[in-house]
Design goal:
By secondary structure, the chain is of the alpha/beta class. It contains five helices and 14 strands. It has a seven-stranded mixed beta sheet. Strands 8-9-10-11-12-13-14 form a seven-stranded mixed beta sheet, covered by helices on one side. The chain starts with a helix and ends in a 6-residue tail after the last strand.
Length: 241
């Protein structure tokens, strides 16, 4: 009986969720020397910590046990696909006063949230600016995945530190409008988002200081470093697959 119990428990642990402390993080400094910590969860899911406040991006229960995370002050949802919008994860992270920011389709699906459309801006947590920027497919036949004007990417400005989270997009012309991006997250998994050459082209369009490919699945993501080897962009690969 004890052996059976032990085997059961080992099975639960091996198949269980990944807790908050199991993920890699990188730390950055703002203009006033405060820390911004980015936690790399999986696929399109990230957590940004600043001034003891927590911003969750596209949390999904399949990627983490969100009951082990601190409650979110803000949750950003890029679009309504199930690998980005998960009511269970949102519920686990929500406390009184949590601000949920979504595109219009996600708000309808979730039944709550503050809608941001492309080019909208708002202030969150007192002094952080959030800009909603376009995210869509351009390759013929793939527009159905992410049609123009529906989905969001987001640019966060945290005391001068500018972070671009692309959501699901290709190398769209609007990327040229991004200015002074310190940290960028670009998705690299065609047919839904970008090929490696498209991601390299996207990066060249706005030249972030640091580039994290994410949402990359089985893509040979190291090839992106080769594509950008002569470009002054620090390409950093983290466990996001």
């Amino acid at each position: 009986m004890k052996l059976k119990y032990l085997v059961l428990m080992l099975g639960l642990f091996s198949a269980g969720f990944v807790s908050a402390n199991s993920f890699d993080t990188d730390t950055f400094k703002t203009r006033n020397n405060r820390e911004v910590i980015i936690t790399f969860i999986k696929h399109g899911s990230l957590m940004i910590t600043y001034n003891k406040q927590f911003i969750q991006v596209d949390p999904v229960s399949d990627y983490a046990d969100y009951s082990t995370f601190p409650k979110a002050d803000v949750i950003l949802i890029t679009h309504e696909h199930a690998d980005h919008l998960d009511p269970k994860a949102i519920s686990a992270l929500t406390k009184k006063g949590t601000l949920i920011v979504t595109n219009e389709a996600s708000q309808k699906k979730l039944g709550k949230g503050t809608i941001m459309k492309n080019i909208d801006q708002m202030k969150i947590l007192g002094n952080i600016t959030v800009e909603a920027v376009p995210a869509y497919n351009t390759t013929p036949g793939r527009e159905v995945f992410h049609p123009r004007y529906r989905d969001n990417g987001y640019v966060l400005t945290i005391n001068g530190l500018r972070i671009y989270i692309a959501g699901d997009t290709e190398d769209i012309p609007e990327l040229k409008d991004l200015k002074s991006i310190d940290i960028a997250f670009l998705p690299v998994n065609q047919p839904y988002t970008m090929t490696v050459p498209q991601a390299a082209n996207a990066a060249k369009m706005f030249m972030p200081k640091i580039l994290y490919p994410y949402h990359f699945g089985n893509t040979a993501i190291e090839e992106l470093k080769s594509e950008l080897k002569n470009i002054p962009i620090d390409v950093r690969i983290r466990k996001m697959q």
